[in-house]
Amino acid sequence: MAEEAMAKLAEVGLIGLGAGLAIGLGALGAGYAQGKIGSAMAAASAERPEMQGSMLLYLVIPETIVLFAFAIAYLLIEKL
Protein backbone atom coordinates (compact mmCIF):
# COMPACT_ATOMS: atom_id res chain seq x y z
CA MET A 1 0.00 0.00 0.00
CA ALA A 2 2.74 2.46 0.93
CA GLU A 3 4.75 1.49 -2.13
CA GLU A 4 1.82 2.29 -4.39
CA ALA A 5 1.41 5.70 -2.79
CA MET A 6 5.13 6.42 -3.18
CA ALA A 7 5.00 5.32 -6.84
CA LYS A 8 2.02 7.60 -7.49
CA LEU A 9 3.76 10.47 -5.73
CA ALA A 10 6.89 9.94 -7.82
CA GLU A 11 4.81 9.84 -10.99
CA VAL A 12 3.06 13.10 -10.09
CA GLY A 13 6.41 14.73 -9.31
CA LEU A 14 7.97 13.65 -12.59
CA ILE A 15 4.97 14.85 -14.56
CA GLY A 16 5.19 18.22 -12.83
CA LEU A 17 8.93 18.37 -13.51
CA GLY A 18 8.37 17.55 -17.17
CA ALA A 19 5.71 20.22 -17.52
CA GLY A 20 7.92 22.81 -15.85
CA LEU A 21 10.88 21.91 -18.04
CA ALA A 22 8.73 22.09 -21.18
CA ILE A 23 7.56 25.62 -20.39
CA GLY A 24 10.88 26.82 -18.98
CA LEU A 25 13.15 25.57 -21.73
CA GLY A 26 10.67 26.54 -24.44
CA ALA A 27 10.46 30.08 -23.10
CA LEU A 28 14.24 30.28 -22.68
CA GLY A 29 14.84 29.21 -26.27
CA ALA A 30 12.19 31.54 -27.66
CA GLY A 31 13.54 34.46 -25.65
CA TYR A 32 17.05 33.84 -26.94
CA ALA A 33 15.81 33.61 -30.53
CA GLN A 34 13.69 36.75 -30.21
CA GLY A 35 16.65 38.63 -28.79
CA LYS A 36 18.85 37.70 -31.74
CA ILE A 37 16.12 38.40 -34.28
CA GLY A 38 15.15 41.67 -32.61
CA SER A 39 18.69 43.03 -32.69
CA ALA A 40 19.09 42.02 -36.33
CA MET A 41 15.72 43.58 -37.12
CA ALA A 42 16.72 46.86 -35.51
CA ALA A 43 19.94 46.98 -37.49
CA ALA A 44 18.25 46.05 -40.76
CA SER A 45 15.39 48.49 -40.33
CA ALA A 46 17.89 51.31 -39.92
CA GLU A 47 19.14 50.54 -43.44
CA ARG A 48 15.84 49.52 -45.07
CA PRO A 49 12.78 50.84 -43.19
CA GLU A 50 10.36 49.45 -45.79
CA MET A 51 11.15 45.88 -44.65
CA GLN A 52 10.11 46.50 -41.05
CA GLY A 53 6.65 44.95 -41.47
CA SER A 54 7.90 41.67 -42.89
CA MET A 55 10.68 41.46 -40.33
CA LEU A 56 8.13 41.79 -37.56
CA LEU A 57 6.71 38.45 -38.71
CA TYR A 58 10.10 36.83 -38.12
CA LEU A 59 10.10 38.22 -34.60
CA VAL A 60 6.77 36.55 -33.81
CA ILE A 61 7.63 33.09 -35.19
CA PRO A 62 9.72 31.89 -32.19
CA GLU A 63 6.74 32.57 -29.95
CA THR A 64 5.07 29.49 -31.44
CA ILE A 65 7.70 27.41 -29.62
CA VAL A 66 6.28 28.63 -26.31
CA LEU A 67 2.74 27.86 -27.46
CA PHE A 68 3.76 24.31 -28.35
CA ALA A 69 5.54 23.97 -25.01
CA PHE A 70 2.39 25.17 -23.26
CA ALA A 71 0.34 22.57 -25.13
CA ILE A 72 2.77 19.83 -24.09
CA ALA A 73 2.71 20.98 -20.48
CA TYR A 74 -1.08 21.06 -20.52
CA LEU A 75 -1.23 17.52 -21.85
CA LEU A 76 1.18 16.38 -19.17
CA ILE A 77 -0.75 18.06 -16.37
CA GLU A 78 -3.96 16.61 -17.78
CA LYS A 79 -2.59 13.13 -16.98
CA LEU A 80 -2.70 13.95 -13.27
Strand and helix layout:
Elements: H1 2-47, H2 52-60, H3 63-78
Helix pairs in contact: 1-2, 1-3
Defining traits:
3 helices, mainly alpha, 80 residues
Account of the 3D structure:
- By secondary structure, the chain is mainly alpha-helical.
- The protein has a domain at 29-80.
- It is built from three helices and no strands.
- It has helices spanning 2-47, 52-60, 63-78.
- Helix 1 (2-47) packs antiparallel against helix 2 (52-60) and helix 1 (2-47) packs antiparallel against helix 3 (63-78).
- The longest helix has 46 residues, at 2-47.
Strand content: under 5%
Which percent range fits the helix content? over 70%
Low-confidence stretches: none
Rg, alpha carbons = 19 Å
Sheet/helix structural class: mainly alpha
Average pLDDT taken over every residue: 91
Number of E strands: 0
Gap between N and C termini? 19 Å
User: Can you summarize the main beta sheet?
Assistant: none
| Overall 3D form | rod-shaped
Order of helices and strands: HHH
Number of helices, counting only DSSP H or I runs of 4 residues or more: 3
Summarize the structure.
With 80 residues, the chain is mostly helical.
